[in-house]
Each structure stands twice: as C-alpha cells, then as structure tokens.
Amino acid sequence: NHDTNTNNFFRNNLCHTCKNYSTTLKRCASCKVVAYCSRDHQQEDWKRHKELCKVIRTLNNNYAYKVTNHA
Predict the structure, then answer these.
(1) How many CB atoms lie within 10 A of CB 15?
(2) Which residues make Cβ contacts (< 8 Å) with residue 26, sequence separation at least 6?
(3) Along the chain (71 residues), what's the average pLDDT of each consecutive run of 10 residues?
(4) Cβ proximity of 34 and 27 under 8 Å
(5) Rounded distance between C-alpha atoms, residue 31 and residue 54, angstroms
(6) Cross-strand partners of 35
(7) How far apart, in whole angstroms, are the C-alpha atoms of residue 5 and residue 22?
(8) Is the sign of the CA dihedral 27, 31, 33, 39 positive or negative?
(9) Rounded to two decimals, what is the model's pTM?
(10) What is the pLDDT, as a whole number, of residue 4?
(11) Which residues is 57 bridged to in the sheet?
(12) How far apart are CA 26 and CA 37, in angstroms?
C-alpha cells in the first residue's frame, strides 16, 4: 500500500499512486487532473480519488458554464 499522506498532491509527470516519473501518464478521463502510470494504479486509487474527482468535475463544469455564458 502506498503512503496516503503524499496522495493529496498532484504533480505533473508523476503517477498519483506510486509517484514514479513518466512522460506517458494517462489522466483520469473524468476530472483530467490526476494521472497514473497504469490502469492498475488508477483502480487502486479509485476509492480515494472518487470524491475528489466529483468535486473537480463540478468545478470544471461550473467554470465552463460561466465562461460559455460570459457570467
């Protein structure tokens, strides 16, 4: 199991689960913020990521709505 204390940070080119550097990470398809080096790591992190993912999607959708509607 990976250290959950460092799991709250999003670093460019680091897998969110194992913190290994890679230039070919795959971002979460829903929030587009958190990235993983493998599908296994994404699945391993899903229970922790699920609520944050929902918040990020909501913020992104609200921002896109305001930009689109010039609010």
Answers:
(1) 21
(2) 35, 36, 37, 39, 42
(3) 52 89 93 94 95 92 68 52
(4) yes
(5) 8
(6) 27
(7) 21
(8) negative
(9) 0.69
(10) 47
(11) none
(12) 6
Strands 35-36 and 26-27: antiparallel
The CB-side HSE value for 50 (13 A sphere, CA atoms) comes to 5
- Model pLDDT, residue 1: 45
**For the chain, how many residues are written?**
71
Q: In one letter, which amino acid is 13?
A: N
Burial class (CB in 10 A: 0-12, 13-18, 19+), 65: exposed
Whether residue 48 contacts residue 7, with contact meaning beta carbons closer than 8 Å, is answered with: yes
67: tokens are: 């930009």
- Look at residue 38 in the predicted model and tell me its pLDDT: 96
Determine the Cα–Cα distance for residues 15 and 35; give it in Å rounded to an integer. 6
pLDDT at 49: 93
